[in-house]
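User: Is it possible to get a 3D structure for a protein together with its bound compound? The compound here is nickel (II) ion. I've pasted both below.
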Amino acid sequence: MTNIISDKVESITQEIINIRRFFHQHPELQLQEYATSKKISEILSEWGIENTIVAETGVVGLLKGSKPGRTVALRADIDALPIYENTNLKFASKNEGVMHACGHDGHIAICLGAAKILSEMTEHLTGTVKLIFQPAEELPGGAAHMIKAGVLENPNVDAIVGLHIWPDIPKGTVGITQGPIMSAVDRFDLTILGKGGHGAMPHKAIDPIAAGTHFLTSLQTILNRETDAFDRLVISPCSFNSGNSFNVIPEKAEISGTVRYFDSTFQNLVPRRMEELISGITHAFRCDYQFDYTHLCPVVKNDSEITNYLEQATRKMLGQEKILRIDRPALGGEDFSFYLEKIPGAFFFLGTKDEIKGYTNSLHHPKFDFDEEIIPIGIKAFTSFVFEYLM
Ligand code: NI
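Assistant: Yes, that's possible. Here is the predicted structure of the complex:
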């Protein structure tokens, strides 16, 4: 089977690279992926793959094997970013200020490549394959829209796999791990309300900046005094805005930031302790407050059984040397976690780092690009997983 897949991948690689370049040249922002989803749908239809547009800018394709069996989903995210491209590529973005700087053009191409090969091999397939092209990963939350639109039902999906092009690991490697691979992403927004006044007469005002600075100083004690040093937790206040004049005490101070973790017990602990600190400090400084804490994405936690299938498949297909154990999960988030809250699945990294060829820029960088040699590797990983799981 691995030989058949390899030959087929080789025969379509140039076509899929051209498809990747098309999507790279025509990026669209989250929830505006109308042309992208239309194009994906057209390509699938051209190859005879049944598909529908869902959640306005998403696409779901369906491939039925010759024998009934389980259903497996492959997921690709399709949105681009508000970044001015600076790659000098011949197929650079034609949509000014919008760029596929997160490799989602590659994800679309890889998922389409796998779809094409699987569509040519349905006589060997026992079960069904769902191809999920999802909008608005960067929001994040496109996954939630797709789930709400019913993509995990009819037929019910038993397992799901997704990947992300990853410039932090060597080109061509497949980064796999059991359990958490990407962190939860939360955000907090705090407004401290004081009383404005003249800078020369602070006793007649209530200074929200004083309360805000004390809050920021105390915030990190949640990490270094209240959690186990071996637990991984990041609390990053990233903006503090207050006042606009050298001699006016402002009425309010606004602080916002992000929280990352891999252990879901922090999901309740962190906002609770933050609010207790805020409440105590603002009370002590005679201020009021408004505090919002939002869970944007849960932890991306790989299922051990599905990860084993993925590892076996990629080992057979690509060789043991291409498998890289990820011992430090990423602190970035991925809304793939919403699928994993519903069904078992696995997410993996497809390495692109190549210092000799200069593929070293990080995701979201205006010069981010990847060597297209990784496209057939991604297609092989997806395709071999499907056969391994549906066997
Ligand atoms: Ni991304």
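Residues 2-25 form the longest helix (24 residues). The chain has a mean pLDDT of 96.
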